[in-house]
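User: Some background: our group keeps a shared notebook of sequences we're curious about, and every so often someone picks one and asks for a predicted structure to add to the entry. Today it's my turn. The entry only has the sequence so far, pasted here. Could you supply the structure so I can complete it?
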Amino acid sequence: MPNITFEINPNLTATATAYSSMVWLPPASPVTNAWSGYLDATTTGTWFLTGSAGTATGCSLATPCPFPQLKNALNDGGAQPAIYTAAVGKGRDSMWIGAVDGLRIDGTIYDFEASGVKTRRAK
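Assistant: Of course. Here's the predicted structure to add to the notebook entry:
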């Protein structure tokens, strides 16, 4: 399964870092050799932060967290985290052949088509 990585400024008061990767580790594929339904990264899989942000929040590669726990850890009274970039990636473990479609970030859905990426507002 692919992962989703956001390069972010975590804006944590406990650390001076202005950069961390926020990575979603999806659960096992719900189906094989077929399209799956949409996967909700806020309710499935786990998340971790790289570097000192992972250590400060307790959501590191060694101890990934569910999204509500990560969201709570990032809400430490300082400025809100800011997204720099978003990427769909694949680790170095087993082969995965598939596609990602309908990536939603806040109120925008990014729909990947042969003609390019279309954006639309989430309902």
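Suggested note for the entry: Residues 2 and 99 are 9 Å apart (CA to CA). The longest strand covers residues 82-89.
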